[in-house]
Amino acid sequence: MGAELLRAKSLYCERDDRVLFENLDLQLNTGEILQIEGRNGSGKTTLLRILSGLSNNYEGEIFWCGETLGEAKEAFLAELVYIGHQPGVSAQLTAEENLSWQCALHPSLDNSKIGYAIAQVGLKGFEDVPSYQLSAGQKRRIALARLYMSSAKLWILDEPFTAIDKLGVAAKEALMLKHLSQGGSVILTTHQDLSDSMPVRTLSLGKPQTEVAYE
Amino acid sequence: MAVKWLPRWFFQLASPRWCYQFIGKLIPWFAAISITLVVAGSIWGLAFAPADYQQGNSFRIIYLHVPAAILAQSFYMLMAIAGAIGLIWKMKVADMVAKSVAPIGASLAVLALLTGAIWGKPTWGSWWVWDARLTSMLVLLFLYLGVIALNSAIESETTAAQATAVLALVGLVNIPIIKYSVEWWNTLHQPATFKLTEKPAMPAEMWMPLLVMVIGFYTIFGLALMLRLRNEILVRERRASWVKELLSVKA
Amino acid sequence: MSDRQVSVGRLFAQTFKRDLVLAFRRKSELVNPLIFFLIVVTLFPIGVSPEPLFLAELAPGLIWVAALLSTLLSLESLFKADFEDGSLEQLLLSPQPLFMVVLAKVTAHWLMSGLALTLVAPIMAIMLFLPAEGMPGLMLSLLLGTPTLSLIGAIGAALTVGLRRGGVLISLLVLPLYIPVLIFGSSAVQAAITGLPLGGYFALLGALLALALALAPLATGAALRISVSG
């Protein structure tokens, strides 16, 4: 049982006339993997965006290492790697250029590890290729390469394994285990089944709800 | 954001239901006062105030033009401040106020421009003059239209409210700059004769009905705002049980 | 220099460089606003009158209005591509000051819109028979005024980046805010032609620029966060 990293209290979110979740509590400690489950449209992506600070369309409180997100914003962002639905890769830039800019944005990313990271995701030889010439899976791998360069504690990953093959998934699972052993944590959503050996806790969203009634 | 120095009623305002009921109580009073003031002011100004020795009776349009212009400007400020409150304290009611004020303010700007044009015809011989005040009012109308357009372009209500709040604040900062630059531009191109809305030393018989009209406009358009706000509350809170009860009782 | 200062400077430089590289790799986007500038200026002699005296009088204001419209045209691309590929999200998740990133992007944008227009303006001036005395005033006023146009325009671009067709809406939001720059900019050129002192105009344009530099990136950052959170 590690130290508390991220804690959410009484989260409430509504969107398009539907309540996505209410009274949601969650806690993530160091060395844990939390998987958010739910049907399509149950609010998984919304929850991840709220937890990473991208969306403020919620009520409730979120704490990072005991401080509210508002107070600890900078410290929180410095320890966060977020990979969303879109890979965050500029099509006109090469893999190396993309990662280089990411390093300027996030001090937690190590510039010197770019070559190593690109090799680890199987893109060796493609460093200088403009990304529009790469497949969707390859672009996603550029995004995932950041995980090899980062010393950040919290990874929030939204469907990270889309268009990644089994070998790639296995490699990422190994990476996540290594991350956990160094005191990091992961929150993710995925349609793929993670192998049984992974220490995963799950949180289910989207209990069947028809009408919304509230005071 | 817990700010302890704010009085309790400020946070009470945050409840749409409370606002709906409170405003409902105010409406009859406002209706009575505003109609009295506007009717009295109109009759006084249009019939009884002395005619201007230069412009004759056509100047009487100021009893509509000046209040409309004053309100158009102060309602923009209200819209920006309400937007700011909604942005900082995440208050839904403040967002609703800002959204309700926008069309009213825009209509007032149009009224000011139309009455300005009506004044211009007998005075200058043309329906429009590129006078500093009128041009500034036109730009204010554009600022209003921008806010309304942005609000309707964004689908999510909360995002729309936040975006328009930012836009309204940016506009607010710019308004003094725009007014100054337009006035300066105007003096460059027109010899300093007399301006369309110049108010030289007006005798009491002239500015008193004007004052009555200004207050009357504030109350009557405040009333319009309150009615719109109540509607907006019902629409936004339509899924709440108190609204459903209310609507089923009325049905 | 402290660690943090080094990284902020590096962030500015990297973002600036990135935006320039991106723009040069999408060459058509670079050139379109300039062509538009030229076409707009050409419309007036064709549509109204090619009389040299008439055009000369029209020239200062016309060149300025054309510059405004060309800047508007190039604004939509400021944040759109980044929004669509997810880079904007990453940008907003940086622990570094958003102000710097926005400033870097706007500077890069200005280099390719306002500055480019300023360099092309003499051609327009010749086509509109602007007297030679007005040329330095024209260039300087554009040089001082176009950065403000980019800064204010960025606010409009940020507010509408999430909309599918934000193009026309940007114009509606931003053009009223451009009026002071237009007034002082074109008056500066008029003054230059008639030989009046220009110091006051440049001071005013400079003041507008200073205000925009201080405040516009803040509003732009707030607008970006709002657009992405939706």
Biggest interface between chains: A-C, 33 and 30 residues
Oligomer: heterotrimer
What's the shape of chain A? globular
Task: Write down how many β-strands of chain B occur, each being a DSSP E stretch of 2 or more residues.
Answer: 0
Describe this structure in words.
The complex is a heterotrimer of chains A (215), B (251) and C (230). With 215 residues, chain A is α/β, with parallel strands linked by helices. Chain A contains six helices and nine strands; from the N terminus they run βββαββαβαααβαββ. Chain A has two domains: 1-79 and 153-209, P-loop containing nucleotide triphosphate hydrolases (Rossmann fold, 3-Layer(aba) Sandwich); 92-152. Helix content of chain A is 29%, strand content 26%. In chain A, a hairpin with a 2-residue loop joins strand 1 (4-15) and strand 2 (18-29). In chain A, helix 4 crosses helix 5. Chain A is globular, with a radius of gyration of 18 Å. The relative contact order of chain A is 0.20. Chain B is mainly α. In chain B, helix 3 packs antiparallel against helix 4. The longest helix of chain B is centred in the N-terminal third of the chain and has 33 residues, at 16-48. Chain C has one domain (3-229). Chain C is globular and about 55 Å long. In chain C, 55% of the residues are buried.
Give a short synopsis of this structure.
The complex is a heterotrimer of chains A (215), B (251) and C (230). Chain B has helices at residues 8-12, 16-48, 62-89, 92-124, 132-153, 157-189, 204-236, 241-250. With 251 residues, chain B is mainly alpha-helical.
